[in-house]
């Protein structure tokens, strides 16, 4: 089904496509943001309209992340957890955009509607909902998790109110309402005049879907857009240095790492040898990669979770420096000897590894794959490099089937649940399919299972530290490379309030500043 809109709305949407010099007067309180693609789904079994990037701020989550990556009040005023039960007090001054009150009944209905999308991380026990008062509810986790509230900071858990067709008339409590949507072209939202919170600075937000990196950058330079919300390494490398484009960044949060297939069948079974995995870790010159990619703003990584996040600290992982000689010695010890062509061999078999780059797409990490290929070649490892620019192909063809040795990924723990990333990528019970090929085994399963049921934050973090060390140091199923900030580009004179979570960048409160 494709949403349709009136001709008046289509004309309004077209107006924002004009260069700023030709835009109507409303442009003073309008903002146009370019993102790579339209990722929305209106399938009721996996509904992500206006919640998956770009988060259009029509609907809101129950809680939001604070600067310390703890959940803070939004629609939920406060909450408590004891003996497996969550007790929540709602704000009593919130309405959906259609005027429906956010109360116990509508909140329970919204949470049940969310669960219809078969969430793989909230997992609320649907029969456990209880209305305790007009603005108080309780519920339980169907898995015994003490981290349901933390997971509610993910934009995907935003709550929709009653609507005959939420793909055409999404009904939320957010600061904006839908104006127009042209699939794969753009979505425009306008200020919700009945919003319960502080009104945003921007009257109208338009998100344009521009797949080509160069086209997004050119549109910014031509003043056809105001902000780029998805910035790739190639864009940073080609960004003009004359002040015509301004770079905004968060603290480092996103990791670039190689995930190793430790359960693959031949010919993808070489990474089962930890010595080979460690050799690759020492063969990577992270300082050189950091100086080339992401405008030099990436940092050599010791893990896949930054030390500042969740107060993890940097002392529970040691990391790996660059030592090609040590890498070679490890490969020698593992029985891989240099052949006359410079490629190592063992029992008549070449040390050739398939490296698939990348998740979410190869453009997010270019030219890192080629740099890694050269670094591994220097220690006698041949790389069969496969570059994909489609996360669906990446998953279905290579990850889910175990048809590679190494997987280059650029991602992050994108909510305030400290177990979210590690549980979904590195447990044998992962709901995310092919990641079972990179799961260390029962010991990590147990650590993360205990962390998800731990009753205190300190206990959660202690077990996450232990699991993280196993993943990136002891078992070394993930080889960390860089830790990277979240970036945005804008035209001069704009202050973009950055967030480590791309979906929490508050474009509605971009400010104009003097130059």
What would you say this structure looks like, in words?
- The protein has 515 residues and is α+β, with helices and mostly antiparallel strands.
- 23% of the residues lie in helices and 23% in strands.
- It is built from 13 helices and 22 strands.
- The strands form five sheets. Strands 1, 8, 9, 10, 11, 12, 13, 17, 18, 19 and 20 form an eleven-stranded mixed sheet that branches.
- It is globular and about 75 Å long.
- 48% of the residues are buried.
Q: What would the keywords be for this entry?
A:
four-stranded antiparallel sheet, eleven-stranded mixed sheet, 23% strand, disordered N terminus, single chain, 515 residues, alpha+beta
In a few lines, what is going on in this structure?
This protein has helices spanning 7-15, 104-115, 148-151, 213-221, 233-237, 274-282, 286-292, 324-333, 368-377, 391-399, 420-426, 442-453, 457-474, and strands spanning 30-35, 63-65, 71-73, 76-82, 85-90, 130-133, 136-140, 176-182, 186-191, 204-209, 227-228, 246-260, 299-300, 337-338, 344-346, 349-350, 352-359, 382-387, 406-411, 478-490, 494-495, 511-512.
Runs in which pLDDT lies below 50 for 5 or more consecutive residues are 1-27
Give the strand content: 15-25%
Number of strand elements: 22
What share of residues is helical? 10-25%
Given helix and strand content, the structural type is alpha+beta
Q: Quickly count the helices.
A: 13
Largest sheet: 11 strands, mixed
- What general outline do the C-alpha atoms trace? globular
- Quote the average pLDDT: 91
- Distance between the ends: 46 Å
Radius of gyration (CA) equals 24 Å
